[in-house]
Amino acid sequence: MILTGNELLPKLGVFKKLIDVLPEFICLKNEEGEWLVANEFALQVCGVDRSSYKGLRAEELSCFLTPDTIRRCHETDQKAWETGRPIKIQEEVLQKDGSYIILELIKQATFDDEGNPLYLFVTGRDITQHKAKEEELSVALELLESVLKGTTDAILIVDTKENPIKVNHSFEKLFGWKEDDLISGRVDTDVIIPSEYKPESKSIMSLLAEGSTVPSFETQRVCKEGTKIDVSISFSAIRNMQGQVIGFCLIYRDITPQKKAERALRESEAKYRVIAEHSKDLIAVADSSGKLLYCSPSHEGLLGLTNGIDELNEVLFSRIHQDDWEFLRATFAKARSQKKPFTFEFRLKISSGDWVVMETNAVPVLNEWDEIESFVTIARDITATKETEELIRKSEKLSVLGELAAGVAHEIRNPLTSLIGFAQLLKESDEEMKDKYIGIMLTELKRINDIVGELMLVAKPQAVHFENSSLKDMLESVVRLLDTQAIIKNVQIQLNTFGDIPPVYCVENQLKQLFINLLKNSIESMDKGGLIRLTLIKAKGNVMVEIEDQGSGIPKDRLEKLGEPFYTTKEKGTGLGLMVCYKIVKEHFGQIQFESEEGKGTKVQVKLPIYPLSVV
Question: Domains (ranges, CATH) in the chain?
Answer without folding.
Answer: 8-132 (3.30.450.20), 151-259 (3.30.450.20), 387-457 (1.10.287.130), 463-609 (3.30.565.10)
